[in-house]
Write a structure and sequence with these properties.
The protein has a 6-stranded mixed sheet. Strands 1-13-5-2 form a 4-stranded mixed sheet. The longest helix has 11 residues. Helices cover 26% and strands 26% of the residues. It has one domain: 4-Layer Sandwich (CNF1/YfiH-like putative cysteine hydrolases), CATH 3.60.140. It starts with 6 loop residues before the first helix and ends with a strand. It is of the alpha+beta class. Zinc ion (ZN) binds next to loops.
């Protein structure tokens, strides 16, 4: 079982990963339960929301806040900012970008679900900005997890026009490289390029590792989580 992770976060003691498809569809509670048991993370400490391809972020700063949220109907949002210990957050993806940002000592962490709509709405930049308003200190670093990469993200003009700096034309087809746009947004928020790591994995290219909404036309999803012990 190969979880997709970032070595810098592992070194900071932050439990995190994007799940491979062999662990199953993470929309199913029995699969998330199994994952969090394996990771020794209490699932009731993991904040969840209903993803709506927006640029809405939610800040949570303690366990009681997470547990209050979980008792209510799920919030509609696409990004978490978490601070405090023994809490975490999770998002579902299947081609969209899972983005994790953290501050120098990983006291404040951001996790956002960036589909092309979210990237176009500047959710990556807003995640970084919101972290600073929620107390993030020192330099920020980012991990852009497995998603549909420029090799496969073919688009029509309506989408291409939203990314004037990230369109690649090959033959008579247009592709968007979301990494390029995310890099632009994060560097504009003063994150150094060398502190931004892009996963090389493409969800569309690697059926052995990932679900892909475009390729499979199903709603099966991968989970990306972060947890601060
Ligand atoms: Zn690809």
């Amino acid at each position: 079982m190969n979880l997709f992770t970032d070595t810098r976060l592992t070194a900071l003691g932050i439990l995190h990963a994007t799940t491979p498809c062999v662990m199953g569809n993470m929309r199913l509670p029995q699969n998330t339960q199994k994952l969090f048991e394996q990771q020794n993370i209490p699932e009731s400490h993991i904040a969840r929301f209903k993803q709506i391809h927006s640029d809405t972020l939610v800040c949570v700063s303690g366990l009681s806040q997470v547990q209050t949220l979980l008792k209510q109907p799920l919030l509609e949002a696409d990004g978490w900012i978490i601070s405090g210990t023994q809490i975490g957050a999770a998002i579902l993806t299947a081609d969209c970008v899972p983005l994790i940002i953290w501050d120098e000592s990983a006291q404040v962490m951001g996790l956002s679900h960036c589909g092309w709509r979210g990237v176009a709405a500047e959710l990556p930049a807003k995640t970084a900005r919101q972290m600073r308003s929620c107390g993030a200190q020192g330099k920020l670093s980012a991990w852009v997890g497995p998603h549909i990469q420029g090799c496969c993200f073919e688009v029509q003009d309506d989408v291409a026009n939203q990314f004037p700096n990230a369109v690649q034309v090959r033959g008579n087809k247009k592709f968007v490289d979301l990494n390029q746009e995310i890099l632009r947004q994060l560097t504009q928020e003063n994150i150094a390029p060398q502190d931004i790591v892009f996963s090389k994995h493409c969800t569309y290219c690697e059926p052995e590792n990932f679900f892909s909404f475009r390729r499979d036309h199903t709603k099966d999803a991968l989970l990306t989580f972060v947890y601060k012990p």
